[in-house]
Structures are given as structure tokens and as C-alpha cells.
């Protein structure tokens, strides 16, 4: 029932995104960094999500991209109304609505919806992960040399030297590295086997919370970048098909992840 509500809310929110895509109805309302924008569509979608979800979880803290406190609570609804806002502004078709429900610090349910491709990922703890109603599983590749991976750019450009250093090591080890601009979709693509691993830091809870549930239920390994337990509020994620997780951790360390 919980997942059904989250799905319905994401589908309704997705209509707003789809209707305004590549139109003059997209207005930039704020610019928080060189590549970090807020549009009127972000705000409208978040309002729709809160309107549909919050009343069903009166004791849950709502953690959303456009406003609200970021602190742990026994129940958390973690919302990203438009993951990939920069893509959306430029008419690039990689965006998603992401909703995660976490209870007692553990993932309970997650939904990630790409309304432009009408691609719906969903999962509930212990019930498996699905893409458009069909079960999904992570890939079976055993070595990074057979893998396609993904990462993203941090908003803090002071981190670029470390990004390039790690990217150089990873790209020389795997087949190729993709950068699409949507953390939520990257996580889901690992969950369904289209990608084999994904790493990124300088993230917010709403970037990861919905996708992490889906990845775990699809058999992925999901940790911090140092290999510790994944935390929704931790700001970083390493997700893989499980088979190449240790190799990814080693490659990140070789690239200097432990260097502050």
C-alpha cells in the first residue's frame, strides 16, 4: 500500500514535468551554484508530492530538496521533485522524480520515475525491485574490465582535481564511464543491469534515498565510498552489481579517495 501511494504520487508529479518540458513554461527561480538551479517546475512538483504523500505519513519527517531540515528521524519521506534540473533546463532527456521512505534508519520503499521516458522503478523492502512492473536484477559481470560504470560532477568545483584523479583510474580499468546528470537514474540503471556500478559524492539525501531501496532489492551492493554502511544522509554512495564492489573500492582508494 505504501509503495502504491508513492508510485501514484510520482506518476502525477511526472505529468507536470512532461507537460512543461522544452516549453517557455520553465522559469529559473534560484541559482545556488554554477550548475545548481531551482525552477518553478521543481517547486510545483514538490508541492504535488507533499500534497499526496505527507497526509498518509503524519509522523514522518519530510526531507525535500526545495526546503526543510535535513536531520534523521524514525520515519523519513525523502523527496527529489526533479533530479536532473540542469538537464531539464537544457532539454536533455535524463530527469526523474525520486521518493524514498525510510523507517528506523532502514530503507522501506522507493520509487524513481523518469516521466519523459515513462520509465518507472519501484521497490519495497523484502518484495523485490521492478521496472515497469517487471522484476529486475543487477548484472552478473565479475570484473571491472567487462563493466560500464557511471559517476557525476560535484557542485563544489574545488573537488574536480579529485574527481579527475579517480576518474582516470576507473576509466583505465573498466570499459567506459557514463555521466548523465541524474543520480537517481544512475542507481536504478545499476539495479536493472544497464550499468554495473556507480559512485558519487557531494550528494544530498534526495539524490539517493529512493534509488538505494531499489538497488538493494535488485541484489546490488550499496555502501559508502570507503565500503562502510550506506546512510541516506551520508552524502555519498557506491553501488555495484556486487561482484565488482571490492574492485571498485580498491580503484577508488588508488585514485585517492582517502585523501581529504
**Low-confidence spans: pLDDT under 50, at least 5 residues?**
none
Structural class: alpha+beta
| Helix percentage | 25-40%
Distance between the termini: 43 Å
Spell out the CATH superfamily of the largest domain: Fructose-1,6-Bisphosphatase, subunit A, domain 1
Tell me the major beta sheet. 7 strands, mixed
Mean pLDDT across the residues is 92
Overall geometry? globular
**How many separate structural domains?**
2
Compute the number of strand runs: 14
Strand composition percent:
25-35%
Q: Which CATH architecture of the largest domain is right?
A: 2-Layer Sandwich
Radius of gyration from the alpha-carbon trace, in angstroms: 17 Å
CATH topology of the largest domain: Fructose-1,6-Bisphosphatase, Chain A, domain 1
Task: State the helix count.
Answer: 7
Strand order in the sheet with the most strands: 3-4-5-6-7-8-9
Q: In CATH, what is the class of the largest domain?
A: Alpha Beta
Q: In sequence order, what are the helices and strands, one letter per element?
A: HEEHEEHEEEEEEHEHEHEEH
Amino acid at each position: 500500500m505504501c509503495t502504491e501511494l508513492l508510485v501514484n504520487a510520482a506518476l502525477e508529479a511526472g505529468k507536470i514535468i512532461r507537460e512543461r518540458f522544452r516549453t517557455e513554461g520553465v522559469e529559473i527561480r534560484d541559482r545556488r551554484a554554477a550548475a545548481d538551479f531551482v525552477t518553478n517546475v521543481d517547486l510545483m512538483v514538490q508541492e504535488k508530492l507533499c500534497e499526496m504523500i505527507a497526509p498518509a505519513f503524519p509522523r514522518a519527517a519530510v526531507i525535500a530538496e526545495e526546503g526543510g531540515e535535513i536531520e534523521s528521524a524514525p520515519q523519513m519521506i525523502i523527496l527529489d521533485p526533479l533530479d536532473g534540473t540542469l538537464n531539464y533546463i537544457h532539454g536533455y532527456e535524463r530527469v526523474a522524480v525520486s521518493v524514498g521512505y525510510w523507517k528506523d534508519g532502514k530503507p522501506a520503499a522507493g520509487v524513481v520515475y523518469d516521466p519523459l521516458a515513462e520509465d518507472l522503478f519501484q521497490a519495497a523492502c523484502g518484495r523485490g525491485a521492478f521496472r515497469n512492473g517487471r522484476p529486475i536484477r543487477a548484472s552478473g559481470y565479475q570484473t571491472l574490465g567487462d563493466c560500464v560504470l557511471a559517476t557525476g560532477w560535484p557542485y563544489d568545483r574545488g573537488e574536480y582535481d579529485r574527481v579527475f584523479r579517480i576518474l582516470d583510474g576507473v576509466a583505465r580499468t573498466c570499459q567506459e564511464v557514463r555521466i548523465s546528470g541524474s543520480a537517481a537514474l544512475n542507481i536504478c540503471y545499476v539495479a536493472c543491469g544497464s550499468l554495473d556500478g556507480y559512485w558519487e559524492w557531494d550528494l544530498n539525501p534526495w539524490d539517493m534515498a529512493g534509488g538505494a531501496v531499489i538497488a538493494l532489492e535488485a541484489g546490488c551492493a550499496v555502501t559508502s565510498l570507503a565500503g562502510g554502511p550506506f546512510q541516506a544522509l551520508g552524502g555519498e554512495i557506491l553501488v555495484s552489481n556486487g561482484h565488482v564492489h571490492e574492485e571498485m573500492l580498491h580503484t577508488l582508494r588508488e585514485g585517492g579517495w582517502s585523501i581529504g
